[in-house]
Write a structure and sequence with these properties.
Blueprint lengths: L4 H8 L5 E7 L8 E7 L17 H14 L2 E7 L1 H6 L2 H14 L7 E5 L11 E4 L7 H24 L5 H4 L5 H10 L11 H4 L1
Length: about 200
């Protein structure tokens, strides 16, 4: 379970506002990538907080509201479909993470980033944490905000494009999704760069 070890280390080094940063939606065939940055109060207890992938949808939805309520500040941002296609998914993810950090109402002075690479363009000191969403409370909180926000967006897309079953798979490359693409072609939210092998 995540704890505040990484945050506390940053506090001991003199930082005051430590944000956790994570993304959701790097792998899907459709839709934008979403990132969140969250500053939690020191040693803030949120029962059940964990890596968003290890939680049920119902639990994520419940924690989403609790995190927003308890956070010192939070920010959610996207790397757009156009940015994914123009650059690549990694660059678009970095853009989203930078937007999330820059969007915090209380500016962070240190960032804990999920993964093994510091995104280009980050203007504050930072450290990476591999599997950070299961180790750091701030990153776990960010993972939940990003995941719930993106899933909700895909539910909206499902209403517009019901034939692709976005509510079911959230844009990921499931059998049903590939079958829908084979039957209906692509729609305007598909990542064509991800589908080159399928489309020929």
């Amino acid at each position: 379970m995540p704890d505040f070890s990484y945050e506390n280390e940053a506090y001991e080094n003199g930082y005051k506002f430590v944000c956790g940063v994570d993304e959701a939606g790097r792998g899907p065939l459709a839709g934008p990538v979403c990132a969140a940055a969250v500053i939690l109060p020191e040693n803030c207890e949120i029962e059940g907080l964990n890596d968003s992938k290890k939680l049920s949808e119902k639990k994520r939805e419940m924690l989403f509201d609790i995190i927003k309520e308890k956070a010192v500040a939070y920010s959610i941002a996207y790397g757009t479909l156009e940015e994914i296609e123009h650059y690549n998914i990694l660059e678009a993810t970095y853009i989203a993470m930078n937007r999330a950090i820059d969007g915090l109402s209380q500016k962070a002075d240190f960032a804990l980033i999920d993964g093994n690479r510091v995104p280009k363009g980050i203007k504050i000191p930072s450290a990476t944490v591999i599997k950070g969403d299961s180790k750091s409370c701030s990153i776990a909180a960010a993972s939940i905000l990003a995941k719930v926000t993106r899933d909700r967006l895909m539910l909206e897309y499902d209403k517009k494009y019901p034939e692709y079953l976005f509510a079911q798979h959230k844009g990921y490359g499931t059998k049903a999704h590939y079958e829908a693409i084979a039957r209906h072609g692509v729609c305007e939210i598909h990542r064509l760069s991800f589908l080159k092998n399928v489309l020929g």
